[in-house]
Amino acid sequence: MNFLKKLLGMAKTKKSPSDESYIVVTLNDKLMPIDRGEIYGDPLEEFLQAEGIGELTGGGTMQHASGEIEYCDLEICINTDSLNDRQIKMIIDKLESNGAPKGSVLTIEKTGEKWPFGQKEGLALYLDGENLEDDVYKNCDSNFVVEEIKRLISDKSDLVRYWQGEKETGLYFYGDSFDVMYKSIAPFINEYPLCKGEKKKKIA
What we know:
By secondary structure, the protein is an alpha+beta fold. Helix content is 31%, strand content 29%. The chain has helices spanning 33-51, 85-97, 134-139, 142-152, 178-191, and strands spanning 21-27, 54-63, 69-78, 104-108, 114-117, 121-128, 161-164, 168-175, 199-202. Helix 4 crosses helix 5. The longest helix has 19 residues, at 33-51.
């Protein structure tokens, strides 16, 4: 598999003083830290400042022992102890407009109240990295798999979500419907040699 590996560092968050109120946004999105900031963090920070709601104070990436990303999160320090439902809905709307998947949750730390949100559905495709014929790995290209799947599901973004493990590579795609995405790519993955023995999973 010929993907370049990226640094999966954990962004440090500020320690929460007792007189401040915090929100943690858990995003069910398998994003690298840099991509997390570009897709969610930077637009959210601009929005929070413009609306006078608060500021983004940190973010992190949770990984399984294998190194595969499980989810990412953002921490928000709000300007008031009584964040109202309208403001919460505004934050959620902003995150959903940037593609937040189903299974995401906004948590108000002081009360423990949780607001589930997210609209996109996710499809993970795991490619066998050790059991196929040598010629398959030599002559096939994992980048082509990504490009073709993105074309088939009409994903015009430049972002590639992936994880490269010791025995398999995970590719992640998000769209309006898991079933529609899989139906669109099924003929391709059933024919392309590198996709032989693939495993699919609904992740959002």
